[in-house]
Design goal:
The protein is an alpha/beta fold and about 250 residues long. Helix content is about 30%, strand content about 25%. The protein has 8 helices and 12 strands. The strands form 2 sheets. The protein has a 6-stranded mixed sheet, with helices on both faces. Strands 6, 7, 8, 9, 10 and 11 form a 6-stranded mixed sheet that branches. Strand 7 and strand 8 form a beta hairpin. It is globular and about 50 Å long. Keywords: Acyltransferase, Transferase. It is an enzyme of class 2 (transferase).
């Protein structure tokens, strides 16, 4: 009967509950710095209570798998794994960037900034990864639906902004980002995009994650296979990167 989804990979904690038929019943977005660890469980309980679910009525759990910070992305993945294993229900894993791209296309049912001629919109999602880098991926929305996606990568912001394809659907691509203003202002190619701040898109994020968790496009894990689910960190852990650099005789990253 019920579906619960959650994501803690970004600065916005997203949790939602709905029915297997696609009806969203309750959703919560909270942007409280360093608050995910204390807010996740109460948020799950809140959406379940609001939706009228008991634990025994949950049929599926969806989690955003990142990329994101080492600590942040693990919270929802670990909680989702524990709940799915205890309740003996499937765990569906959805890349966080996919849900962000879809959330950007959920303004009035049409892609934000979509060209009139074909309803398609190219979307670049970038999440700040420090040291002038960003987690990112390219997507294509059509009629508010996610039609094409790419794997998450980490590259310098300058490189992301310079690789705009020559032919993209829907005119100027949409850039959804949480980059510091100074990072974007210093890039020469920033004007090649329509801009959408993550702070404006994140309120639709739980709904987008819920919708994608119901599609058959993403891996579903049951039984002992739930234990094999891992977050997508996209970057090595900071301590490991420093240790490797020192062992190789290089400068500290």
């Amino acid at each position: 009967m019920g579906v619960i989804v959650m994501d803690t990979a970004t600065d916005a904690l997203g949790v939602a509950a709905g029915r297997m038929d696609g009806t969203l019943l309750s959703a919560v977005t909270q942007r409280v710095p360093r608050g995910h660890s204390r807010l996740l469980q109460p948020s799950v309980q809140f959406v379940m209570k609001s939706a009228g679910f008991s634990a025994g009525e949950i049929e599926r759990i969806g989690v955003g798998t990142g990329p994101g910070s080492y600590t942040g992305v693990r919270m929802a993945v670990s909680t989702g794994k524990a709940m799915a294993h205890a309740l003996r229900v499937p765990l569906v894993t959805v890349p966080t960037l996919d849900a962000i791209a879809l959330a950007a296309g959920m303004s009035g049912g049409q892609p934000v900034g979509a060209a009139e001629r074909d309803g398609k919109q190219a979307v670049l999602v970038l999440l700040f990864a420090r040291r002038h880098r960003a987690f990112g991926g390219w997507f294509v929305l059509e009629g508010g639906q996610l039609r094409q996606r790419s794997q998450a990568e980490v590259k310098p912001i300058e490189m992301w902004l310079d690789e705009v394809p020559g032919e993209v659907p829907g005119g100027l691509p949409l850039l959804v980002h949480d980059l510091p203003q100074a990072e974007l202002a210093s890039r020469s190619n920033g004007s090649a995009f329509q801009l959408a701040a993550w702070s404006d898109v994140c309120t639709r994020f739980p709904d987008a994650l819920f919708r994608l968790s119901l599609k058959g496009d993403y891996p579903s894990f049951e039984g002992e296979r739930i234990h094999t689910v891992l977050p997508d960190y996209a970057l090595p852990v900071e301590a490991e990167a420093k240790l490797k650099s020192q062992q190789e005789g290089g400068e500290r990253p």
